[in-house]
Each structure stands twice: as structure tokens, then as C-alpha cells.
């Protein structure tokens, strides 16, 4: 979502004459687009600010304006200015359309400009559309932002604000534009993307399944994905879409967080571990080759050894193709932060055990792909010359020997090796060099 937002910010700054540079010393403006989800992510912002602050005193540099955007800006606006006086602009995720004004204000007054409002008008309708896709062939498209679920560990409802779904027509127009720019894959994004309920052209609210059908029908769009979804918002309509829409990729990132009903309740997740098992069963019933990924939190306040064992049992039952797991990080202002905390050493031990199991499942999933024939969307050059890297329908990184002309296109590949984090294949299609 931050990649998508950064792209929209680039779009609004282009008419003012700004272009991207990879060289901080050349920049007239540096925007840190930040994440507040865990303490580690938020702290990175201050170490990074310490580094780029040097550019302000460096006579060989352009003495850039420094802006902090994203959820750290939203949550810690004033604190950022106190801790890092070199910052000129603080802009929350709902105020990016006001960047030109903030830049003008900071330049003219030489005082920091800050905007962390949640305006009534959605930012998307105010920002110009992108003129490129972030990676060749693939594009992200935010369809829903914010969250009303208030899981007790999570800052998102506070930093991204209340749940908002973009109207269908504006999503479809943006997807058409990405297709015209060469995208064949679109990933629909939202903090809680399957809560999507945007209004269609007739003014009726439609769900994510129907939105996916609209996007999949656009000429040139061959792959649709969505992320991140909440188990309690997995509707029958969305599950059915997995069986009905071939372009909808057979891979769902469905965070479960814990396998213990007690912990799930304390997290305010509003479903049980068995509910999750049943949802997965129905998804696999709709599409047999569907693979899953998930997020896990270990060491949530009050989590016992038995609770953690229940998480391991759930993982063993489901079998994940990929997963992300984190130690619980107490976030100021969220309900769980005030509860008695699990010791750091216990969190580390549980994380290592969980990641061990998840890594074994990922390796087994990759090994099981060997011998199959898959479509790969190629994204970038590999580390070795003559190598290109892309994604399988199941989101595996795939490396093959082939020409750079493959990048941005889909080609058939025979999988010949499975590793821990990627698979290797041989090109089956004739590709013009
Ligand atoms: N909307 C998604 C998750 C968004 S946050 C959902 O409902 O599942 C992405 C992931 O960060 C979460 O799934 C969770 O695993 C992790 N996360 C969020 N807050 C956290 C915290 N306080 N400590 C540790 N991990 C956290
Ligand atoms: Fe955070 Fe996701 Fe829960 Fe919303 S549903 S509060 S984004 S974890």
C-alpha cells in the first residue's frame, strides 16, 4: 500500500517539476513513506532521518526538503518534529493530495508544515493517476483503505482511519489505465480488502468478488490478486469467485494471527480457529489448487504454552505455502498494550519454533512444484547474467535462464528445482531475444 501511495505522490509532484532520483544527494525533496505497524518499523524512521539530516549540512548536496509521510507521520506528527527538527513536512496518509501546498508552505515560511487530517473527500479522487506501473507487467491498486475492526493489537484503525471503499467506476478506470500502460496483473489492495463494498454505476454496493469480476474482464488483464483479507469477511460470494474467475490467482493471503480461541478472542478477531479451518476448506473446495499464506503474532499478552501449541497445530493442519510471523509489539494507544506482557525470551523461542515449521512447509510446497508446468509473470533481471525472475500463480519467486525481453510478460515454464525461498525452471515458450 505504501508503494502504491508513493507512486500517487510521484504523480502529484510531477507537474511541479519533480522527477525521481536514486541519489539522495541529488534530491530537492526526500519523502520517507513510513510504517507504524510494529515498533521496529517506526524506529527505523528516526535512524533514517539521522542519516539524511546530514544532507542538509553537506555543501555538495542540494539541501533537500525532508518530508515524513505514512502512518508514523499520522501517529507521531508532533513527536517527529520534536525528535527530528530537520523535518520540514509531516503528512498523514489521507492528506497526500495536499503535498504541493505543504511544500509551498514549508519553503516560504521556513517552518515545518504538518497535515494529519482525515478529510471527508477521499484522497484518491484528488490525486492524478499514475503514468507507469511500479514493476513491469504488474500493478497495485488500492480499492479500500482504513479499518473498523479494531483488533486489540493493531494501530491501523487509528493511523489509516475509518473504513472507506472507492467507487467501482474509479477502480475500473484505474485498472484500465494500468492495462493500457502494460500491466497484465493487478493486485487489489486494502487494509481489510474483503470488507470492500464500493458503489457501482447504479449506486448499489458490490462486494470484492463482483469487483474482481469487473477487473478480470478488462482486456489485457490476465491475473488478479487481492490482499490483505480478514477471515471474518470471507463471504460466500468471494469464495465462489475463486471457482468462477480463472484470472483470479489460486493464492490467498489470509492472516489468522493465532490458533488459540482464547487468544483470538482477546485479539478481538471475531472468529475461532475452527472457523478458519472451515473457510480454508471452502476456499479449497472452490479451487482445488488454492495455496495459502498467513500472518502470525507470537507472544500476544496472556499467550500460554498451550495457546502457542494450538497455533502450531493449526499450522500443521492447514499447510501454508508462505507466511509472515512476528513477535507481538506493544503499540501505544491500542488496548493490548496495557496488558501484562509475555517475556521477550519466550517470544523469541516461540517465533523460532513457528518459523521453523513454516519454513519446512514452504520448502515442501516448493519441492512439490517440481515437474509441473506453470505460467510465470517475469518482473526483473536476476543476480546472474542471463537470468530473469518472476512470480508463479502461487506467488513463488521463479528464476529461469532467458532474455530480458521476458520482463513484463507471462511465459510457460517447467519447474525443475524447488528451494527454500524460490523455485527454478526452464522456459517452454519460444521467446524472441
Ligand atoms: N488487516 C490485516 C493485517 C494488517 S497488519 C488483518 O486483519 O489480518 C499486517 C500484519 O502485521 C498483521 O496481520 C499482524 O500479523 C502484524 N501486526 C499488526 N500489529 C502488530 C503488533 N502490534 N505486533 C506484532 N505484529 C503485528
Ligand atoms: Fe488491524 Fe487488520 Fe485488525 Fe483492521 S482487521 S484492526 S487492519 S489487524
From TrEMBL:
Domain (TRAM) ranges: 367-429
Gene3D superfamilies tied to this protein: Methylthiotransferase, N-terminal domain (3.40.50.12160), tm_1862 like domain (3.80.30.20)
EC number: 2.8.4.3
Cofactor list: [4Fe-4S] cluster
Chemical reaction(s) catalysed: N(6)-dimethylallyladenosine(37) in tRNA + (sulfur carrier)-SH + AH2 + 2 S-adenosyl-L-methionine = 2-methylsulfanyl-N(6)-dimethylallyladenosine(37) in tRNA + (sulfur carrier)-H + 5'-deoxyadenosine + L-methionine + A + S-adenosyl-L-homocysteine + 2 H(+)
Domain of life: Bacteria
Short name of one Pfam family: TRAM
Cofactor: record remark: Binds 2 [4Fe-4S] clusters. One cluster is coordinated with 3 cysteines and an exchangeable S-adenosyl-L-methionine.
HAMAP family per UniProt: tRNA_metthiotr_MiaB
Protein's UniProt name: tRNA-2-methylthio-N(6)-dimethylallyladenosine synthase
Organism this protein belongs to: Candidatus Defluviicoccus seviourii
Amino acid at each position: 500500500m505504501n508503494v502504491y501511495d508513493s507512486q500517487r505522490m510521484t504523480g502529484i509532484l510531477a507537474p511541479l517539476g519533480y522527477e525521481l532520483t536514486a541519489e539522495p544527494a541529488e534530491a530537492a525533496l526526500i519523502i520517507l513513506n513510513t510504517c507504524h505497524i510494529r515498533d521496529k518499523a517506526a524506529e527505523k524512521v528516526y535512524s533514517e532521518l539521522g542519516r539524511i539530516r546530514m544532507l542538509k549540512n553537506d555543501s555538495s548536496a542540494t539541501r533537500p526538503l525532508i518530508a515524513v509521510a505514512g502512518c508514523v507521520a499520522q501517529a507521531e506528527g508532533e513527536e517527529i518534529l520534536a525528535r527530528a527538527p530537520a523535518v520540514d513536512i509531516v503528512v498523514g496518509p489521507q492528506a497526500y493530495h495536499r503535498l504541493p501546498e505543504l511544500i509551498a508552505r514549508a519553503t516560504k515560511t521556513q517552518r515545518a508544515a504538518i497535515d494529519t487530517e482525515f478529510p471527508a473527500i477521499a484522497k484518491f479522487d484528488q490525486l492524478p493517476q499514475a503514468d507507469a506501473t511500479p514493476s513491469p507487467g504488474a500493478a497495485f491498486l488500492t480499492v479500500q483503505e482504513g479499518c473498523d475492526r479494531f483488533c486489540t493489537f493493531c494501530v491501523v484503525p487509528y493511523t489509516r482511519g475509518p473504513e472507506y471503499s472507492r467507487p467501482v467506476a474509479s477502480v475500473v478506470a484505474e485498472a484500465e489505465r494500468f492495462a493500457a500502460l502494460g500491466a497484465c496483473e493487478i493486485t487489489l489492495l486494502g487494509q481489510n480488502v474483503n470488507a470492500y463494498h464500493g458503489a457501482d454505476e447504479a449506486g448499489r454496493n458490490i462486494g470484492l468478488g463482483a469487483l474482481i469480476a469487473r477487473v478480470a474482464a478488462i482486456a489485457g488483464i490476465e491475473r488478479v490478486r487481492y490482499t490483505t483479507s480478514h477471515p471474518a469477511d470471507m463471504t460466500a460470494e468471494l469464495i465462489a469467485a475463486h471457482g468462477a474467475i480463472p484470472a483470479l490467482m489460486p493464492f490467498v493471503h489470509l492472516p489468522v494471527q493465532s490458533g488459540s480461541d482464547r487468544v483470538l478472542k482477546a485479539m478481538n478477531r471475531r472468529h475461532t480457529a475452527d472457523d478458519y479451518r472451515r473457510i480454508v476448506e471452502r476456499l479449497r473446495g472452490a479451487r482445488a489448487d488454492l495455496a495459502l499464506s498467513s500472518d502470525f503474532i507470537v507472544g500476544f499478552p496472556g499467550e500460554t504454552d498451550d495457546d502457542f501449541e494450538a497455533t502450531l497445530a493449526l499450522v500443521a493442519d492447514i499447510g501454508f505455502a508462505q507466511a509472515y510471523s512476528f513477535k507481538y509489539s506493544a503499540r501505544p494507544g491500542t488496548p493490548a498494550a496495557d496488558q501484562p506482557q509475555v517475556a521477550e525470551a519466550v517470544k523469541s523461542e516461540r517465533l523460532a519454533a513457528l518459523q521453523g515449521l513454516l519454513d519446512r512447509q514452504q520448502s515442501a510446497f516448493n519441492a512439490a512444484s517440481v515437474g509441473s508446468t506453470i505460467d510465470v509473470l517475469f518482473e526483473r533481471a536476476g543476480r546472474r547474467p542471463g537470468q530473469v525472475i518472476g512470480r508463479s500463480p502461487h506467488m513463488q519467486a521463479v528464476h529461469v535462464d532467458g532474455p530480458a525481453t521476458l520482463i513484463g510478460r507471462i511465459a510457460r515454464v517447467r519447474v525443475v528445482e524447488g528451494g527454500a525461498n524460490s523455485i527454478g525452471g526452464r522456459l517452454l515458450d519460444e521467446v524472441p531475444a
